[in-house]
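ok so i was messing around last nite and threw this chain in just to see what happens. nothing serious, just curious
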Amino acid sequence: MLTSRVFARGLGALIFAAAVPTALALDGPRPAASPVIATSPTEPFKSVRDAFKIGIRDYNAGDKVGAVRALEYAATQGHTMALWKLGRMYAEGDGVMHDDLKAFEYFSKIADQYADESPTSANARFVSSAFVALGGYFLEGIAGSYVKRDVNRAVDMFYYAASYYGDPDAQYGLARLYLEGIGVEKDSRQAARWLHLSAEKGHHAAQALLGNLLILGDGVPRQGARGLMWLTLAREAADPEKDAWIIELHDKAFAAASESDRQAALAYMQQYLSKNR
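result:
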């Protein structure tokens, strides 16, 4: 894998290639390309920034139609946050009909135009988030579209966002690939490394997986107390409805832990919270 900005500059071509069907019959009809961005609305805006501000204002006020109109105007001018917000709206069916292909294309435009964005820039978190979203789409593919499952591209998307931008979601996603041996050779130590980077940023799912890995000593040195510490932190942040698996892992580990490990885990957790307060 490449880790430099040379890799970043190559991602534009990578995304573009993924967005063009390659198995078309030479003498057959070519499918119409799905537009990445809708046509500009007729309503004038003072500036791209003004359009984005109006879009977010309308979104927060519950006017999703007005929000999409303004955001699309800003997106046609390459506004990063407008592209990202529209991608999220289509990915989640938030105020628009759920459409993963449209979401993919909005995120692709960000990756194509802003792959070399500085990690310290205001737009960095939106760019890295777009790469994470693309990684997820390449990992599964989009049914009924030209976006096919491609685990190698998924690895590239996660790796770039995880290493260049330090994105905790990307680090978690990459760790999962190493744990399961998808697109990479199965490697618990590499998984633990990426999980630790993500866990340190407060990613509670990464904290849970890292804690469980350390408690089991599966491919890594067993560290029961430190593993219980990570699981406890994850348990505190877990949503009872969405993260039942985290609660189950914690409760099982806590019940099996010795009193000395419980006390050590508490001390580790106090150190962690003090450092990150």
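not much to say yet. Residues 259-276 form the longest helix (18 residues).
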